[in-house]
Amino acid sequence: MEDLKGILSTAYFAPIQYYCKLIQFPETLIEQWEHYPKQSYRNRCNIYGANGVIALSVPVVKATNKKVLLRDVKISYDTNWQKLHWKGIEAAYKSSPFYEFYIDDLAQFFHQKWNSLLEFNLAIQDEICSLIELDSNYKLTNDFIEINIQNSNDFRYSIHPKTSKTEEDTFFIPREYTQVFSEKLGFEGNLSILDLIFNLGPDSSSYLQSCISKL
C-alpha cells in the first residue's frame, strides 16, 4: 500500500506544506539514508520579519568526503547560531498572538545541544505536533527509497526553499491568515510552521486540514 504513504525528508521547523503531508497520509516515511543535500529545508527554515522573509540555517559539520548520509550529519556549534535564531524568532514574532503561549516549550531547541541533525529535527517535529495536537504517523526509512518520478507521494526533493526546485502540488492550497507583518508587507505563504503556530495558535491544526485539497 505504498500509495497510502507519503515520503518526506527531515526538516528544521518545516514549512506548512510539510506538515500538511504529515496528516494527509495514513503513514509517512522520513528518509534517513539519502546523501545529504545542501541548501534545503533539512537544515533551514523561513520566518517572516519586519523586512520580509528571513532564512535561518543550522550549520553542519563538514564531511570528510563529498557524500555523507543524512543520518550521519552532525550539527556544528562553532558559531552561536542558536542565539542568533532565538533572537531572530523573537524579533519576528514577539508581538504575535501566541508567541508567549508557545515560546517556553520551544526554548529547549535553542539552549540545549543536539549532536545529530536528524534527531534534532525529529525532536522539533514531535514537539510541534504535540503543541498543536496534530496526529502524525511517521517512520524512518529502513533503506534509501529509489526516486520514482511516477510516485506523486514523494516530496523529499520537491518541497524546497528554492522556487526553481519546487514542483506543483495540487493537493496543497495555502490559504491566507493574519501575519504580524502582512498588513505592511503582504501575505507570505508556506513559511515555517513557526509562523503558523505563533499567529494562529490552537487553530493551526484546522488550518492545515483546510490547506489539503480533496481533488
From TrEMBL:
It comes from the Bacteria. The lineage of its organism: Bacteria, Pseudomonadati, Bacteroidota, Bacteroidia, Marinilabiliales. This is WbqC family protein. InterPro entries: WbqC.
